[in-house]
Recover the amino acids of this structure.
């Protein structure tokens, strides 16, 4: 029953019933369903309060269908630790959707510790979608260290799809070798007494490496957000951009600290940070079209974070 | 009795009297115009009727079908069937034209959005995915504003300077949209200082110094407006200049 709820909440019905789609479904500290495809190896080991996962993709392998990982906790109170190691072979390509589903959480802590290597010429995308309860009793602490080999590509997206943030503390760091490209994006909408902390870092150590760090956060009610995004470029022709955008409403508080460090005269990194509020004229306009204040704020923030 | 009446409206902002004991009423299903030169209080009156923030604290009363709506906020007034297209519409970063138009529409189908855009002369496939932000020209933004009004099927609609920023070629689209609103049974209130727009109405009010100086048929108001108000011959101080209110 609990598995059904996870699959339903994560909306991965078709993936679960397709033998050509790789997946791994975990509820708290138990592996409840798994499937893999050619070239992709998924090893799991149940540990105290969690699961240790090793995923490796052979070289020269393109995984056609996105891989679905579902890290769920259907319990009200629990700790879930995910230790994950991902190794993408040379010239390979994979897209992973990670569904973090805590629909009943009153007091749930989800800790993720990731190490990811993306081989030469390989391409890796990781989309993390969070579905939380409306209680806000969730603490999410995702950490990842990522290495991109020459010519590798990385794209990560962190998104809260539904429910309250609770407390989120993201810490991602990517090191980029020659000609590699990384794009890391976080999009979070905080309400109530949510606390959001985002630390994205990129080290452009390779020639011609490129990176973009983007954070878009809204805070309403009494929510708090802090963004520290840091991009360091030390190689010739490295190019980077840091973008922090925050919207505040009500008693929300936000800070954005983009840090750029350039130690090579031929590298170039730019940044922008903005903290805005929902404008009264926008609000009044939508209300004059028959939207309640809440609905209007939602639509405006939705646009700002898109 | 009109569908909408404003009675003895007075409003001061920062100590300046902007609306002065103003009386006005609108008949159901008619296209009305409120004309007057810049600064006489036309937009302010529209804002007061719509119930916008900052325009709620006035003397007098506003009645919809005989019932006071004075205490209702902008959302509640919208819910009772009143809406407004702004003289200078707000811009929304990241919000698509499609979502913006859908926002107020009861029928949220894609056909409704397309239809509304077509009615103001905009190609849906070009504009639906665009953002309602700085990247739209002033005229485009005005047309999107009007399209969003059309999609609502409002009972009462205030169009504040619907032609501002609109090029001659598109003017006819705006006028068609006004006709469409009327055919749909809406009561239309055109706020304007343009003779072209005035001609689209069936009944007109001339505003002067925050009050209604004259009301009557369009031709009569047009002539008075053209003779006395372009340019304004008393610099917005009618009593002092012997103009009979
Ligand atoms: N929020 C406001 N604060 C200060 N003055 C205002 C405000 N709204 C309107 N006014 C003043 O009221 C007068 C009437 O303005 P408005 O209603 O916009 O005129 P119109 O639409 O007829 O050109 C102007 O002098 C304008 O500056
Ligand atoms: Mg005006």
């Amino acid at each position: 029953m609990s598995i059904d709820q996870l699959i339903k909440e994560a909306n991965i019905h078709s993936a679960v019933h397709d033998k050509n789609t790789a997946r791994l479904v975990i509820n708290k500290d138990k592996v409840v369903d798994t499937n893999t495809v050619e070239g992709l190896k998924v090893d799991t080991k149940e540990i105290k309060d969690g699961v240790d996962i090793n995923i490796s993709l052979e070289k020269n392998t393109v995984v056609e269908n996105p891989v679905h990982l579902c890290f769920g906790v259907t319990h009200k109170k629990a700790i879930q630790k995910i230790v994950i190691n991902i190794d993408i072979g040379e010239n390979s390509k994979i897209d992973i959707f990670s569904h973090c589903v805590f629909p009943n959480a009153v007091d749930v802590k989800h800790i993720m510790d990731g190490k990811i290597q993306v081989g030469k010429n390989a391409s890796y995308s990781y989309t993390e979608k969070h579905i939380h309860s409306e209680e806000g009793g969730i603490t999410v602490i995702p950490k990842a260290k990522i290495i991109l080999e020459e010519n590798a590509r990385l794209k990560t997206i962190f998104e809260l799809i539904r429910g309250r943030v609770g407390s989120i503390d993201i810490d991602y760091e990517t090191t980029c070798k020659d000609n590699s490209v990384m794009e890391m994006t976080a999009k979070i909408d905080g309400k109530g007494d949510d606390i959001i902390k985002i630390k994205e870092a990129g080290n452009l150590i390779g020639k011609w490496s490129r990176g973009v760090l983007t954070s878009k956060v809204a805070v309403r009610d009494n929510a708090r957000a802090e963004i520290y995004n840091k991009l360091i470029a030390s190689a010739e022709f490295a190019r980077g951009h840091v973008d922090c955008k925050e919207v505040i409403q009500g008693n929300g508080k936000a800070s954005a600290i983009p840090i750029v460090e350039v130690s090579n005269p031929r590298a170039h990194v730019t940044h922008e940070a903005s903290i805005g509020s929902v404008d009264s004229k926008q609000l009044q306009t939508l209300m004059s079209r028959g939207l309640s204040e809440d609905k209007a704020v939602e639509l405006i923030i939705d646009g700002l974070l898109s | 009795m009109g569908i909408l009446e404003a009675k003895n409206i007075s409003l001061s902002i920062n100590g300046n009297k902007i609306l002065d004991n103003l009386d006005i009423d609108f008949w159901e299903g008619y296209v009305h115009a409120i004309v007057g030169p810049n600064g006489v209080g036309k937009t302010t009156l529209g804002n007061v009727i719509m119930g916008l923030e900052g325009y709620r604290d006035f003397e007098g009363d506003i009645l919809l079908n005989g019932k006071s709506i004075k205490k209702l906020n902008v959302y509640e007034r919208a819910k009772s069937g009143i809406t407004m297209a702004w003289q200078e519409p707000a811009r929304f970063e990241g919000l698509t034209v499609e979502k913006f138009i859908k926002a107020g529409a009861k029928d949220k189908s894609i056909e409704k959005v397309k239809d509304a855009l077509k009615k103001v002369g905009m190609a849906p496939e070009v504009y639906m995915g665009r953002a309602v932000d700085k990247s739209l020209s002033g005229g485009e933004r005005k047309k999107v504003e009007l399209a969003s009004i059309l999609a609502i099927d409002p009972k009462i609609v205030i169009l504040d300077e619907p032609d501002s920023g609109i090029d001659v070629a598109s003017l006819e689209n705006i006028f068609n949209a006004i006709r469409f609103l009327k055919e749909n049974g809406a009561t239309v209130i055109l706020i304007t200082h343009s003779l072209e727009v005035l001609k689209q109405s069936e009944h007109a009010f001339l505003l002067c110094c925050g009050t209604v100086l004259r009301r009557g048929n369009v031709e009569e108001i047009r002539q008075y407006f053209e003779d006395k108000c372009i340019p304004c011959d008393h610099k917005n101080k009618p009593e002092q200049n012997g103009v009979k209110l």
Remarks:
- The radius of gyration of chain A is 20 Å.
